Structures are given as C-alpha cells and as structure tokens.
C-alpha cells in the first residue's frame, strides 16, 4: 500500500501530461495528414512558407501549384499548411 501511495502522484502527473500535451498533438497531426492526403486539383492552399496557390496537379508525394501569375511550382505534399475555404 505504501508503494501505491508513493507512485500515485507520479502516475497522476504522467496521465495529466498525456491528456494535456500528447493527445491533442496526436489529434492535430492526424488531421493534418488527412488534409494533405485529400488534396485535389483546384484546391486553394497555403504552404508552410506562406505561399498562396492553387493545386494544378497531384502526384503521390508532390504537388504542382499554380500561383497568380501563372507560374507552376512543384512542392512536397507535406509542405501544405492548410486548405483555404471559399469564405476565407
């Protein structure tokens, strides 16, 4: 019983650490992976570097992005930060 009383605060700290920090980060990473895997031609996106572009072509690991002046750039699929919705 004495061991349980000694370990209880440590176990509680580990549980709180997981609930507050690790679990939300895992959820966010899952959402980002799903968003990046669901990219389609015509989606308006913002890259991690802040480039605003439209997806011109989708490959397995990369994207061809078209910027406003008509230039086409190839980016890694993982560099997409978010998909811009029509009301943004």
From TrEMBL:
GO biological process, one term: protein transport
Cellular compartments annotated: Cell membrane
The encoding gene: yajC
GO cellular component: plasma membrane
Keyword Aminoacyl-tRNA synthetase listed: no
Alphabetical list of Pfam families matching this protein: YajC (PF02699)
Highest taxon in the source lineage: Bacteria
Organism of origin: Halalkalibacillus sediminis
Name recorded for this polypeptide: Preprotein translocase subunit YajC
């Amino acid at each position: 019983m004495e061991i349980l009383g000694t370990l209880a605060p440590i176990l509680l700290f580990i549980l709180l650490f997981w609930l507050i920090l690790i679990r939300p980060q895992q959820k966010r990473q899952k959402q980002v992976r799903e968003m990046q895997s669901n990219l389609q031609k015509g989606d308006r996106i913002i890259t991690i570097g802040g480039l605003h572009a439209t997806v011109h072509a989708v490959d397995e690991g990369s994207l061809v992005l078209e910027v406003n002046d008509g230039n086409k750039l190839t980016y890694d699929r993982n560099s997409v930060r978010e998909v811009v919705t029509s009301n943004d």
